[in-house]
Amino acid sequence: MPYxxxxxxxxEYLAGRDPLLGEAIARIGPLRRELRTDxxxxxxxxxxSQQISGRAADAVLARLTAFLGAITPEAVAAVPDExxxxxxxxxxxxxxxxxxxxxxxxxxxxxxxxxxAGDRExxxxxxxxxxxxxxxxxxxxxxxxxxxxxLSFGDFGIRKGLSLLHGHERIDxxxxxxxxxxxxxxxxxxxxxxxxVAGGA
Length: 201
Fold this sequence. Notes:
Oligomer: single chain
Largest sheet: 2 strands, antiparallel
Number of helices: 13
Helix content: 55-70%
């Protein structure tokens, strides 16, 4: 099973750039996260999960998987919107999911091409889909494509981790960009440790 792993080189680099983050890395220890390499299934998960609790999203995804057999572009395209709504999707999300399925089926979004593309090109291709914003694209860059230098301003947990670590009352965009530059080219490893800090680790 593929993983994104915060290797020793990334951890040493981050500790050298940010001693407070280095202390957190030493305290937390090695981190790795499973990659969900099926880009469409990961995107579908993100669409389903928008603005609902994790438990509710899990229930909808379970019903969707049971109904479709597998969450693929072909399976989604083959059923009417009403069938998707019967699995617990709102009309809006059903439309988003159908639109994404059509983009993948038509080749407008080509997963193999995205694997070879740069981070910016991947984000542009994904955010061109209805219902897919910058945060979703950045999470797919991390958890599906395993890109090494992603630090998402739109992620509350990352900003919370920075605030807790450095005592900031607020992380605005200019301050965040300074941290992004500080942690590059290992922004993803920094993200994983900042999430751990935000979670109380």
